[in-house]
Amino acid sequence: LGARAETVLFEGGVKPQSVMKSVAMLAVTGDRGLKEFPLELAEVVRTIGMPPPDVHAVLRSWLFSAGFIHAQKMAPRLVNFFALASASLSSAPHYDWSLRAAHRIIIAAS
Fold first, then answer.
1. Integer Cα distance of 32 and 20 in angstroms
2. Cα–Cα distance for residue pair 17/14, rounded to 1 Å
């Protein structure tokens, strides 16, 4: 979409690209997001899988953008902290050890 290409490689073939018809939907399951996809939408969209994000790279970028000059050293420590907290502490739903929580902490600390 960003390149304004007229065609796109999709499912092994070249398809015409229409900016007006391109839609991306995200359903986050199990992370306080949408628990089940509405049946009406499930009939018209195709499911794809996504790999988990590189948490270290994401946190390092957020730290640098928030002005932390030692972000390279801080990112692995934050990754370890959140991994240990997630594994050691209660799994109650009100405890959030996701990237969303890490982002809030970085913003509050900056």
1. 30
2. 9
Single-letter residue type at 62: W
DSSP the chain: -TT--SEEEETTEEEE--GGG--------SSSS-SS--HHHHTTS-----PPP-HHHHHHHHHHHTT-TTHHHHHHHHHHHHHHHHHHS---TT---SHHHHHHHHHHH-
pLDDT-derived band at 53, boundaries 50, 70, 90: confident
The whole model's pTM is what?
Answer: 0.58
d(C-alpha 104, C-alpha 92), whole Å: 19
